[in-house]
Design a protein that fits this description.
The structure is a homotetramer. By secondary structure, chain A is of the alpha/beta class. Chain A is built from seven helices and seven strands. Chains in contact: A-B, A-D, B-C, C-D. Chains A, B, C, D: This is NAD(P)-binding protein.
Chain lengths: 247, 247, 247, 247
């Protein structure tokens, strides 16, 4: 079956990625990237058996060669289709540490996944989105969304290793928005301000009421709403927080 | 017919208000406020004949008595229903003037409509939204949206009379978001960054391509998308601009 | 004795104003504005007996007529001298109140003093600063400084009546900086982020260590440092906080 | 001669560093770091013959070993003195390039010098500043200043490789300010918004009037003013621009 356009999501293992994949799979064949196949195998099966179409690809977003290889596989599987939506949901992991105990590796991990990975992912997807932007029959403008966090706009004590790469990613997203909007590509940065209600956060969440937690399915709704904006109304940044969040 | 909940929009004459009214009227009976009945008469007729329900009320948002009187009328017409959505789309009008020629009246006009009006409108609607927030059968959290502009986040030369009230409104929206989110009310400020494609802007628009203009129907889509966010994913600010906007 | 240039400070009663007056009086004859003569009488006497030169003028900054009258007095006393430095240190007073109990008067008080007063003060001083900017023998560029607060950049719950005017003032300062820097006038906005160690704050301060409080004499040092910047290095905003402030 | 406290400046070759060194050398023995000895040799001679005290050290700030070795030399030369002031003025160099032509090396260069270098420099200096903070006879609180640029707060099209590291540095500075202010260390980030009037910018400057350029000696004045703030009035960020800058 020929694919008209696909969606790609990097960072499937996070819990949020699962819901993003389900949402975008209602409209597009999806390609799901994660380092570990266990992160996507059940989800690929679920989407394919629910009438959608999904492929999973093991990839290390911090390696340019690995990202290139993943997009070669996508091109083969999805017959060189253009890209309708790309979501960069990978992150170097939370770090909080007294500054004088910080090692360059702490900072480097965030840099590698959050920033370098975003560079490789964007360079692989944007050309495929420029192609989609020229397709007058496309329903929505091609959209690339970068997932940020509270630390993308705040930099609290002991948080420089986490915040510095997040601020850098926000800068990159802003710069891309200005460069590619005139060519029809919609670029968005999100500030996910709170704890997401996903399995790996259960320890942190156990005393938090349901409405102090961000719903991953609700993040997916907002990402879809952003994707379906017209070229006459691009949103380039949104914040997302649960009703009980202090900010 | 009993009304379960209504939506109210202040500032219908602007062009954007028309599209907001059409969108929200698909889901709720709407109350449309404008100083001049000519601003809403045709629209009220259109909505009512299309199967929706609308009332128009002549009101001066800068007068507390007038706002109170308008909400008394709404209570009568819509049987004391709670408020599901409220949009403050009124504005004191664009002013650009050398500072030394600025009169206190230039500044005062923006203050009166943009800030005082928002105070009166919020005080009238928030109690009706708190009531809606307690209704477990409500589909979406009650939402109040304040329409801002480029000048809400920038303050260029000769623009203090326009920007000062807009910055003040953004402060008010932020403060309300923090006070009322824990009670289930969703408060949003929007930065409409560009020229909206509405009749009254035609002079300014005549040399601008379609995709350098913001679509008012696209603003309405985004406002609706914001209203339908869950209590586990409130967005408190969005920017909206056309693909060809420089920023 | 002929006056080459003078400095003017509005808002002397606040405690900080006293230190600002002392600092600027080392370099310029000063004019001190306060509603109540008791706010400046002892200070005027002190400065004049310490070898400086000071006049006090009773003025209501929220009244255009009163501000004009004050500057007429200054012109007479200081022989139509240009203005080297102007500090707007007046404020409508702190307000924190549940939004639904807020009255338009709560908001209006801040608006009147913080924003309208700044307009009148700026319109009175900027022409006298443009004159100073043309004087090649002037040692420093003419400088107008607006005193802001934490609430100039944050808008917490229940703070809209305080924050809205402060955000508006910040917008005005930014706009003035952009309009008048090219003409040689240096415009600055300060974010005083913390409690100032002045007599009227003693209740709030009693359990706070000395280094959790902002020193009013230290604010004066920074204002003077800003005034003495050259036309090749204007700072348009500074934050000021004590070492123990959380932010 | 025993040294009570020293100042250290990284990034001497830039032109601004020269003026920073001259200014701080009026008060402290200085240590000047640059990759290339040619960058500091004449300056070290000048300061020493003008009655100041200076040492130059060849160091690569992007190498942890090189930074450690430099501070070992400083400790030997300046008898393990505490550090009164540290200025991180190094930068990865300006890059502007279409995003799809950007190489990971373009981004990496900024990351290495601007962010990793700042980490190494901060980790070497902060312990020596904590020591100085405990010295009650010290005249001014120890101060570390990071030099940023327009791109620290803006991220224009084609500028992601330059802006991303600058935003990251601003995050790091903010985080350090919050962690170390309570321990008496003053941390500042500066936004140098314009072209500095230094030899290496002459091509860019040739059609710009003198007051459209930032004076490097004026940057030095502001850095000194920041250093001399008391613990009751820390400024954590300043912007600096010439009077003719558009912003």
């Amino acid at each position: 079956m020929s694919v008209k356009a696909f969606a790609v999501i990097a960072g499937i293992g996070s819990g949020t990625g699962t819901w993003l994949a389900r949402r975008f799979a209602k409209a597009y064949p999806v390609a799901l990237l994660a380092r570990n196949p266990e992160s996507y195998e059940a989800l690929v099966k679920e989407i394919n058996s629910d009438g959608g179409r999904a492929i999973g690809i093991s990839a290390d977003v911090s390696s340019e060669a690995s990202v290139k290889s993943a997009f070669k596989t996508i091109a083969q599987e999805y017959n060189d289709a253009p890209c309708a939506a790309a979501i960069y949901n990978a992150s170097g992991g939370f770090v909080k540490k007294p500054f004088l105990e910080t090692r360059v590796e702490d900072l480097g991990k965030g840099w590698t996944v959050t920033v370098k990975g975003a560079l490789f992912f964007s360079q692989a997807t944007i050309p495929l989105m420029l192609k989609h932007a020229e397709d007058d029959s496309a329903q929505y403008p091609p959209t690339i969304i970068f997932t940020g966090a509270t630390a993308s706009v705040k930099a609290n004590a002991q948080m420089s290793s986490f915040a510095a790469p997040k601020w850098a990613l926000r800068a990159m997203s802003t710069s891309l928005a200005k460069e590619f909007a005139p060519k029809g590509v919609h670029v968005v940065h999100t500030v996910i301000d709170g704890v997401i209600d996903i399995p790996k956060s259960q320890d942190m969440l156990k005393d938090m009421p349901w409405n102090a937690r961000i719903g991953p399915e609700d993040i997916a709704k907002t990402y879809w709403d952003l994707h379906t904006q017209s070229r006459r109304a691009f949103t380039n940044e949104v914040d997302i927080r649960p009703m009980l969040e202090k900010w």
